[in-house]
Amino acid sequence: MASNITNNEAQQQASASLPPGMAEVKAKNADDLFKEMNRLPLFMTTLDETDGDGGENVALEALKALAFEGTRTEVAENFRQQGNECARAKQWTDAKEFYDKALAALKQPPQPRDPEDGPKVVEVEVDEEAEAKKEKEIEEVCFVNRALCNLEKKNYRSCIQDCASTLRLNPRNVKAFYRSAQACLSLDKTPEARDACARGLNIDSSNKALQTLSTKITTRQDYLDSVAKVRREREERVASEKATLQLALKSRSIPTRSTEAAPDLEDATVKLAEPMDPSSTLSFPVILLYPCHSQSDFVKAFSEKEKLQEHLDYIFPLPWDQEHEYTVEGVEVYMETAAGGLIKVGKKMALGKVLGSGKVEVVDGLVKMNVVPKGRASGWIEEFKQRKTA
């Protein structure tokens, strides 16, 4: 006979007490529940190594320990497989770390098991020769795969080192030659890249990747050769032009001197109209100093055939000369001699003759002239002598 359940009885059944574990979960809000779930390895979305109260996450530590359970080969193979998974996902940093751990595991001495740690384990005899062979295979693969990670991360020298380690284990590893050649090419070490590529092709002459890379290396080398040729020709031309300029100065008896405090003249320089012809016209950067008023004018290219008067004609009148002291007829020009004295420069004398007199020298590629109003000349000369003797 079917029994009828009243509304009150249904409510009482629905409100019956939950099991202790479920009651504890129900008492927590959603945020706390998500935090607790995140500490369980199966549900983790971010790494939480605590138990929520500042203690150790036992479940996570146990899971970590499993990674190091087994023989060196088993541990290394586990890390290698994880590295491969990351590499397939192009997670190069993570992949490299797993290959690092695999290689480190192969170097670790066997860990004796604590007899009190867990259930009794049945000892199994291990074929040491087969185990050593397997270790070598894993080591080779980890090195060549880590080389790929370093190549993708642009750690080219590390990539080359990993390829070298691979080839010490197996001199016929084509991938190691290919990746080493790629890294060398990225560093513009084209001879080394060509050598690695050729060695790989000697082993596998039909390897399409190596054939393509070989073409790239040749193209890059041709480009580098052309750049080097242009640079060499430019350096040779500059050296020839410099030698021609020195010959031109020497033939005109124009002394020059360089100091450690050379001014920045940008592109202004002593030069020949025809850089390879010592008989062509010379020009000089010239600074006209107005020492009585702490002013100056700069003439970027003053031809050896030009006279000072020609430049003063278009420079004067000076915008700051309120007293109109600076006129072509109203100024005198002086240059310091190599001996530390002064000579008066004729305004109608060509610059080449002034410089070729042997009394003055061109210092740091710059000619300096002092322009002084005639009425102030004697006083300025006296001040100059006092500064020299001070």
From TrEMBL:
SMART domains: TPR (SM00028). It comes from the Eukaryota. GO terms for biological process: protein folding. Residues 1-16 have a biased composition (Polar residues). Coiled coil: none annotated. InterPro entries: Csn1/TTC4_wheel, TPR-like_helical_dom_sf, TPR_rpt. Keywords: Repeat, TPR repeat. One of its GO terms (cellular component) is nucleus. Residues 1-23 are annotated as: Disordered. GO terms for molecular function: Hsp70 protein binding; Hsp90 protein binding. It holds the Pfam family Wheel. Residues 275-384 form the Cns1/TTC4 wheel domain. PANTHER family: TETRATRICOPEPTIDE REPEAT PROTEIN 4. Belongs to the TTC4 family. This is TPR repeat protein-like protein.
